[in-house]
Known about the structure:
By secondary structure, the protein is an alpha/beta fold. It has one domain (3-232): Rossmann fold (3-Layer(aba) Sandwich). Helices cover 25% and strands 20% of the residues. It is built from 7 helices and 11 strands. The strands form 2 sheets. A 7-stranded mixed sheet has the order 3-2-4-5-1-8-9. A 4-stranded mixed sheet has the order 6-7-10-11. Helix 7 (170-180) links the parallel strand 6 and strand 7 (185-188). The protein is globular and about 50 Å long. The relative contact order is 0.16.
Amino acid sequence: MRLLLLSNSTQYGRGYLEHALATVTGFLPEGARLAFVPYALADHDTYTARVRGALAPSGIEVRGVHEDGDPLAALGAADAVFVGGGNSFRLLCALYRTGLREALAEAVRGGLPYMGASAGTNMAAPSLRTTNDMPIVQPPSFAALGLVPFQINPHYLDPDPDSTHKGETREERLTEFLEENDVPVLGLREGSWLRVADGRAGLGGERPARLFCRGEAPRELAPGTDVSELLAVRAEFDIRG
């Protein structure tokens, strides 16, 4: 499989995908026909137009999977797929409803390059359980695509030592997840990403990632770190002790 999993598609002070554009265009086949999955946002046409505007100057032809009324055919005609960010629950619901959940997993395991951002990166994990989103809709299951065997937390946010907010920090929420499940969680800060190819996985971008494993202190991983060992983990959900 070939995966590019971005924490975010828009970086503060930059245009859409601008912070990762060289990586994105290097990942996608030259002149690719890119199937874009816009279901994480409500306005599919406007979302698709935004992606098209960002990638057209690089010679990438973007087509929304919704545009011709047959998402499966659109996926089948593509050279690569991009699953955009937004609300992860709404996105997963749509993948189930359209049949794309199964079709995407099969196509990507068969060699179709997969790019995700935010919610689209969440979809690459086994489960939706480590997303930051509000469940505005109820998918049939939390089971996502399972392209990697570990969890990812895009937009990972460090605690603000000057904040008076008394709610749980992101680290506390992920620690709670690990109390009930035994599967690593890779926290991707904004501006960072994970690339998977040829059985190897590595971190890229501007900022380090944070790795959470059950029974261990969180670890900081610098950009460029090889994290291929995560591809061999076995996820166990709904366990205690």
